Amino acid sequence: MLTTYKATARKLKNGLQVESESRGFKIIMDEPRDFGGTDAAMTPVEALLCALGACQAIVATAFAKSQGFALEGFHVELEGDLDPDGFLGLSDVRKGFQEIRYKMHFKTNETQEKAIAYADFIEGVCPVGDCIENGVKLVRSGVVRE
Amino acid sequence: MLTTYKATARKLKNGLQVESESRGFKIIMDEPRDFGGTDAAMTPVEALLCALGACQAIVATAFAKSQGFALEGFHVELEGDLDPDGFLGLSDVRKGFQEIRYKMHFKTNETQEKAIAYADFIEGVCPVGDCIENGVKLVRSGVVRE
């Protein structure tokens, strides 16, 4: 059933700090001092990597039993290449990540072959991975002056 | 200059809870009870919306002066449509968001025309928006058993 997920992001008084909120849960984001922030929290592009990794970890955990994979632990290291000259307007490179890589770590007694097959499964199910890999239509529904 | 941003996401002991970390800053994510979680934190797809909104808010704030836009406040409401039947394997719909909409709120004395032009500018600069709208190549760099 199509479900609508919601969030709000609000500029705080403090430099570039932003408070994002969904269902009452909050995340503060900021920028490093080099980019005019106060370095009080992670940046939005780092939060994007965090959301991708968390989605993979949740899928890995949630489907282990039904997929017959004996999972005792999971973590994933992610990294993404981005050239700030893009969003700073100093270069024509794209503004976002040019590539995102990740290494999945399974705590398991399963074989390497089964671990690779389960990694394939996780990639095929992960909703955030689908969004980032395949893109999502973004629609601006309004501009309000207050 | 191409910069590599990093994060790690780790399954916690508690059900589906995950701790994601970047430069020492942490976000906990979880799932609602309906999906087997403990509803202790937002979900990764909600965090994706939060990252997008925060990125727009930071761009709105950081570039206001150089773009000659008198910005006194900014927030953005976001929503995304996703059918959980996709990742649950109950339907062939895509796993991620089918569409993301957002309404930008500017606290400003500028005209509506200038506010719309500034919204266009924000969309064109926002790194997370670029990632989600245009997609990013995802590369699995390894599967490690521990």
Q: Describe the oligomeric state of these chains in a short phrase.
A: homodimer
Low-confidence stretches of chain A: none
Element-level helix/strand string of chain A: EEEHEEHHE
Going by helix content, strand content and strand pairing, the class of chain A is: alpha+beta
The rough form of chain A would be described as: globular
Tell me the distance between the termini of chain A: 35 Å
Strand content of chain A: 25-35%
Biggest interface: chains and residue counts? A-B, 107 and 107 residues
Topology, number of strands of chain A: 6
The largest beta-sheet of chain A arranges its strands as 1-2-3
Biggest β-sheet of chain A: count, sense, barrel? 3 strands, antiparallel
Can you characterise this structure?
- 2 copies of one chain form a homodimer.
- The longest helix of chain A is centred in the middle third of the chain and has 19 residues, at about 45-60.
- With about 150 residues, chain A is α+β, with helices and mostly antiparallel strands.
- The model of chain A has no long low-confidence stretch (mean pLDDT about 95).
- The two termini of chain A are about 35 Å apart.
- The first copy, chain A, is built from 3 helices and 6 strands, in the order βββαββααβ.
- Chains A and B meet through strand 1, strand 2, strand 3, helix 1 and strand 4 of A and strand 1, strand 2, strand 3, helix 1 and strand 4 of B.
Tag the structure with descriptive keywords.
homodimer; 146 residues; alpha+beta; two-stranded antiparallel ribbon; 3 helices
